[in-house]
Amino acid sequence: MSANPVEHAFDVSVYMTELGVRAREASAGMAMASSQAKDDALRSIADLLEQGADELKAENRKDLEVGRRNGLDAALLDRLELNDGRIGSMAEGLRQIAALPDPVGEISEMKYRPSGIQVGRMRVPLGVIGIIYESRPNVTADAAGLCLKSGNATIMRGGSEAIHSNRAIARSLRTGLAGAGLPAEAVQVVETTDRAAVGEMLRMKSAIDVIIPRGGKGLISRVSDESLIPVVKHLDGICHVYIDDSADPRMAEAIAFNAKTHRYGVCNAMETLLVAQGVAARILPRLGERYREAGVELRGCPRTCEILAGIREAEEEDWRAEYLAPVLAIRVVDGPDEAIAHINTYGSHHTDSIVTGDYARARRFLREVDSSSVMVNASTRFADGFEYGLGAEIGISTDKLHARGPVGLEGLTTRKFIVLGDGNIRT
Amino acid sequence: MSANPVEHAFDVSVYMTELGVRAREASAGMAMASSQAKDDALRSIADLLEQGADELKAENRKDLEVGRRNGLDAALLDRLELNDGRIGSMAEGLRQIAALPDPVGEISEMKYRPSGIQVGRMRVPLGVIGIIYESRPNVTADAAGLCLKSGNATIMRGGSEAIHSNRAIARSLRTGLAGAGLPAEAVQVVETTDRAAVGEMLRMKSAIDVIIPRGGKGLISRVSDESLIPVVKHLDGICHVYIDDSADPRMAEAIAFNAKTHRYGVCNAMETLLVAQGVAARILPRLGERYREAGVELRGCPRTCEILAGIREAEEEDWRAEYLAPVLAIRVVDGPDEAIAHINTYGSHHTDSIVTGDYARARRFLREVDSSSVMVNASTRFADGFEYGLGAEIGISTDKLHARGPVGLEGLTTRKFIVLGDGNIRT
Question: How far B3 CA sits from the closest chain A CA (Å)?
Answer without folding.
Answer: 27
